[in-house]
Amino acid sequence: MTLSNCHETVHALKCFERAEQLDSKRPLTKFQKVTVLMALNRYEESLEVLQELKTLCPKEAPIYVTMGKIYRKLGDKKSALKAYTMALELDQKDTNRVKTLIEKLNSDSDMLNENEFHV
After folding, report:
1. How many whole angstroms separate alpha carbon 15 and alpha carbon 96?
2. SS (HEC) of the chain
């Protein structure tokens, strides 16, 4: 992940894609690839990789939290809420963080409603 931290995201992505070719079932590589794709604003591709990860690791809450963040970024609040809810069901240790993300979804909706009156 060092390359992506150094803002060499395109190069990092190529490295993760190569690593994926060598071992396509390694979850950590896929998750790191998602992080790089998100940094490049390639959200649809990120979701595709996360769907693969769900198949490999269906009980990993961070997958659903990340999906929720992407759905929120794409404006799909219903899918974001569904993903966050799944994360809560899978792992109660991170409840406060996930609840905060859900509250942000609600505040996004409130801001949209307020903006409708201030056009």
Report:
1. 34
2. CHHHHCCCHHHHHHHHHHHHHHCCCCHHHHHHHHHHHHHCCCHHHHHHHHHHHHHHCCCCHHHHHHHHHHHHHHCCHHHHHHHHHHHHHHCHHHHHHHHHHHHHHHHHHHHHHHHHHCC
pLDDT digits (tens, 9 = 90+) for 77-108: 999 999 999 999 999 888 899 999 999 988 87
Q: Give the C-alpha separation, 16 to 19, whole Å.
A: 5
User: For the whole model, what pTM was predicted?
Assistant: 0.79
Contact assessment for residue 57 and residue 44, using Cβ atoms and an 8 Å cutoff: no
Q: Cα-Cα-Cα-Cα dihedral of 81, 87, 93, 99, to 10°? A: 0
